[in-house]
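Comment thread on ticket #2218

A.B. wrote:
> Attaching the input chain for the structure job we discussed in standup.
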Amino acid sequence: MRRAPGAPMPAPPPLVVDGQRVPAPLLDGAVAAIERDLAALRIGPGSLVLAPAENGVTLVAAAVAAWRQGVPLVMGPPPHCGDLPFAVAARVADAGGGPRVIPVAGGGEPPLVPEGAGVVFWTSGSTGRPRAVIVSREGVAYQVEATIERMAYEPDDALLVPLSLAHAYGFSLLAVCATLGAGLSVQSCFGMPALARRLLDGQVTSLDGVPSLYRLLLARARAVPELRAALAALRIHGCGGDLLPASLAAEWAAVVGRPLLDGYGLSEAGPNVALNGPGDVRQGTVGRPLAGTEVRRDPVSGELLVRSPSVFAGYVDDGREAGEDPRTADGWLRTGDTGAIDAGGYVTIGGRLKDALIVHGETIPPALIEEALAATPGVTGCCVVGVRGGGARGDDVFAFVESGADVRAALRGRARAALAPHLRPRHVALVAELPRLAGGKLDRVELRRRARLLASETTS
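C.D. wrote:
> Ran it. Output below, let me know if you need it in another format.
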């Protein structure tokens, strides 16, 4: 039975960590211990509490306990940035005998958070330093109900989530499981052999992950018929966190026999905006907006704007330069992503507005070039960035290609066959592994830095 909006996460979900089922009394006891500590320390809705970043009993218990007590939880420290840039009242940690709430002394005045704050997520840092995004309790409740409705989750589902529960994508699935009583299977560290074992044991009905994870799974499924059968038996293959290449989606459907259910979201939106769901799939899109969410396109820039009950309540003030607020005066969120909406309401994502290439006066989404190069045999990933040149051409196009073999000749042939001359990368660098941010997105900031270095070496 579905629960009324406004009351997600009533109890910890049936939990499996690294393939081991966590006894319900142990998890219930962890939640109760955290609740007792919060009450004893008189930590209430006006105070921020830091959750651990590591998947496991303590993180799940902290999320449920803090929600019950109305305490906004900061989901781990900022990725790649060390200490918190603002003060919190306490942190939840494993004290050996179980999770405890530990007061944090000093560190400055705690920031003011809006009334009704529910959870604080960190952005991925793809635009610079990560920022702390506040989502209201009402926003979390809306996200849970709208996601359950679109994905048709049921209490007897068991979700395999090889994602960080401290990030918005993973947390949204934790909240779904806790609300429905559905099973949640997570890993404390991420690796393909462990993930394959979870799939082969036949105990899950749903899988979520980023495109790079599905590419690795696809390679293994081609070689292991049992894994291919296990994947085909799943009801849901949810995908998000980055652009899904059309070639990967087509290969997955051909090999596994089930579609990847691509979706779109961002931390500032709470996070889900649009999702393909079982029985409501349009390949090449990220699906329709959730019920209650509106999406429109800026006719000049092509940027997508979102309005929904879960648009964030603001950033936590960290005492430094705040930066631009992406919310408009009339309640729309500027996503920073380009895209389109078709007559049926299905949304297509073109990529980050700031990542667009300008070549001979034409605005080119990197995904257009990446998609062509990624279809080259032996290529497991591709990222295209631009470095502003001094001539009329505009950006010099750099392609970083992930491959374990020398595929440069094949890439040149593919570029000639699939891309207009002005779109063919001037520079191609083969790498063993593309750099990624904590949530799985490509680290385009780092790759632009490498491209600028390569450009300077070429001209020096």
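A.B. wrote:
> Thanks. Noting for the ticket: The two ends are 67 Å apart (CA to CA).
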